[in-house]
Amino acid sequence: MARLKLGEILIKQGLITESQLLKAIDHQKKEKGRIGEILIKLGMITEEHMASALGSQLGIPYYSSENAELLRPLPNQDLEKVIPADFARKNFILPLSKNMNSLTCAVSDPLDFLALDNLKRIVGAELNLVLATKTAIQKAINDFYVGDVRSAPATTILTPEETTIQKKDEAIASSVRQRVASSELSLDKLIEKAGEAPIIKLVDLIIRQAIEERASDIHIEPFENKVHLRYRIDGNLYDVPPPAAHLNLAIVSRIKIIAKLDIAEKRLPQDGAIAIKIDDRMIDLRVSTAPTIWGEKVVMRILDKGAVSLELGPLGFDQKQIDTIRKALKLPYGLFFVTGPTGSGKSTTLYAALTETIDPTKNIMTAEDPVEYKIEGINQVNVKSEIGLTFATALKAFLRQDPDIIMVGEVRDIETASICVRAALTGHFVLSTLHTNDAASAITRLIDIGIPNYLLTPSLVMIVGQRLARRLCQKCKDPYEPTPDQHGNIKFESDLIYRPKGCEACNGSGFRGRVVVAEVLLVTEDIKAIISRGGTYTEIKDAARKSGMTTIFESGIKLVNKGFTSFEEICRVSTED
Question: Cα–Cα distance between 458 and 425 in angstroms, integer?
Answer without folding.
Answer: 7
